[in-house]
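Weekly modeling sync, notes
Attendees: S.R. (lead), two postdocs, one rotation student

Agenda item 3: backlog of single-chain predictions. S.R. asked that every request posted to the team notebook include the full sequence so nobody has to chase files. The rotation student volunteered to paste the first one in as an example of the format we agreed on. Action items at the bottom.

Example entry:
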Amino acid sequence: MMKKLLSLLMIGSCAVVANAQTGGTACTPDQQYAGNPGIYPDTVQNLPPAVVGAAYDAVITAVVPSDTTVDFPGVGIVTLTINYMKIDSAVGHPASLDYACNPADCSFPGNSINCISIFGTPEAGDVGTYPLTVYVTANVTHALLGTFDAPQSTVTGYQIVVGDVGVEVLDANKFQVAQNIPNPANGSTTINFTSPSPSTVDFKVYNMLGMVVKSNKIDAVSGMNKINFNTNELAQGVYVYAITNGNTTITKRMVVSGK
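Predicted structure, as returned to the notebook:
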């Protein structure tokens, strides 16, 4: 139960980089969330994408409640006062990104609103997707049990996607479709698209006469999705591919240069 609690409260505020710096970019918590314990944005919205050579700056707001109830084995349901929740360490981030907390020591008191600024400029070798793992400890007090550190919690669910210069970076919070890569395609090509929620999408490829030459239904997950498309069955030429999520259809042109 404590691990579940820590995941709820800390997953966004901690999904960053490993060694907090007291310098760097200071952040300001988004006050519209004051009084509403949680993390903003959550793991469904996730962190904004980054691009090689472009300055990156993302702010995460963490609202920590004053107390919580947990079920301790052999004890039952108890109410704990949260003294603070602290980031111990984090792994999985690109080395070119860093972070700064407010408060600077990344120790977030109970009944407070805090934030983290994730910043830096991704480098050429950073292209890829970075799942983040964070280790968090909560310090709590109980009237009979006293003050103690709860067992360390492992938090996952956030990622930073770093794209190359000139490569489309999609917003995981929206339905978007990228240009296939490579284009022209010779044998195979990859189409990335994002979905704000799990859904079934229609993928169709049309020739220039408007005839459907390929059709599939795809179970999309929330966030980034990938279609690996075999072009060997298509003749050389220009095609249009379309992805429909039930409400919106997005189309792109694709050139097949060979098999």
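Discussion: group reviewed the output briefly. The chain has two domains: 2-163, 176-258.
Action items: rotation student to repeat for the remaining queue; S.R. to check formatting next week.
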